[in-house]
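Thread: nicotinamide-adenine-dinucleotide complex, take 2
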Amino acid sequence: MSSGTSVQEPKLRNYVNGVWRASTATEFVEVVNPATAEVLTSTPLSTRADVEAAVQTAAEAFPAWRRTPPGERIQYLFKLKNLLEEHIDELARLITLENGKTFGEAKAELRRGIENVEVACGIPMMMQGYNLEDVTPGVDETMIRQPLGVVAAITPFNFPAMIPFWFLPYAIACGNTLVVKPSERVPLTMRRAIELIEQTGIPKGVVNLVNGGREVVDALCDHPKVRAISFVGSTPVAKHVYARAAASGKRMQCQGGAKNHVIVLPDADMELATQIISDSAFGCAGQRCLAVSVAVTIGEAQKTFRDAIAQAASAIRVGSGLDSGVQMGPVITRESKQRIESLIGAGVGEGAKPVVDGRNTKIPNHEHGNFLKPTVLDGLPSSSQLAHTEIFGPVLSLVHANSMDEAMEFLSRSPYGNQASLFTTSGSAARRFRYEAPAGNIGINIGVAAPMAYFPFSGWKESFFGILHGQGRDAVEFYTESKVVIERWSRQETRKF
Ligand code: NAD
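Output below.
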């Protein structure tokens, strides 16, 4: 498969009121293929005026969309599901081009995105409220769910399709209108996805896209007509967005960064654990918010797991995500590569031993790509700074603990709480872990504990700010307001008929 791109648009446009229109931006960010350094296009850093136009359009589209019966609204989602399936290879290729992950990983991400479209097709059931007659004699009470109005989604670079689709299908199925702002580093996937949404015939203004960065985000946070924001990205930005949008009274769900731990007990099936943890730590070049970043080994697992994971990490084939047989692609930018290499150096400085060292990687014919090979840092002290710092690259640190108590205490000190996993064959250890582990997504003999679309994508501590999560029932609650109606009708009225 060629790595050339068919993108014909040197400066991307925004999609507002069913029309692709130029942004008023004066600044642009280059979108660079991480495997080749080829410039694919450039993203406009849109302005407050662009946000104003999109929000205004979405606000105008809301009354009619809200009155469209849920059963009709989801017809557009059924069409979208089919279009996404038809174009899955084309979309996956775009993801690989702009993000760097392998073509297989890109297809897997789309599969999870499509799953959210499928689940949102159940809105006519999921959006129902509840009621009770005779809460006092002759008085009935009903809870109904109503859409909020204009909502916004702000998304990161690491899942150019899946993360926007954690929000978009539920938001519109519930009757809201939407402004989506993809990451300025990977805007091409959503551009194409919006073209497919357009093909469904959905009314103009229901879905809008504004490209950009901080100015767009802040304008969405401040805009009085935006009722709710779904955000996914790093913790400092998640905190910023949470605070800024709360200041104007918005409903928020902000997913932040992560540092995910796995505990490996000596009774684990070591072959299975190694294969799964290797995929979790190094898949998508470690740029998954659920990537395992620290393995805490207990007892003899210190040696058995270290030797096995070092072997697995060394065997991973790194290269361009479009080349067949490649298992791991580049990281997103040159700066990310430098940051990851410097964090590996910091870990070594804190006492870890790089048993597999992926720094200074050069891939033949891809000398300009942002490649690193998998890295395993053995014996990272649990008190080190790196033990609690998000690396967001293909680096697995090994920390040793003498007991499950010690391992759990280490986990409890993490500022993050996105995911925690345990590998064991012991039911009681598994139950204890499920009960006590301080994270929102828990895996037992699972490496990437990514909830299916019909469960909430959880996250605790500095990994999530808000109450209601993305996906499933939480999404329906997030995107609707509950209204309670209490009714009394006089008996004399009925006697008339
Ligand atoms: P990022 O925080 O740099 O960017 C996320 C979004 O915020 C982008 O749309 C970007 O344009 C915008 N943004 C960036 N800086 C901003 C600023 N100063 N003010 C306002 N808006 C700003 O994140 P990223 O590098 O794109 O993504 C990687 C991060 O996302 C990692 O920390 C990863 O753990 C996290 N992540 C978390 C989850 C989760 O479910 N918890 C999922 C995916 C990624």
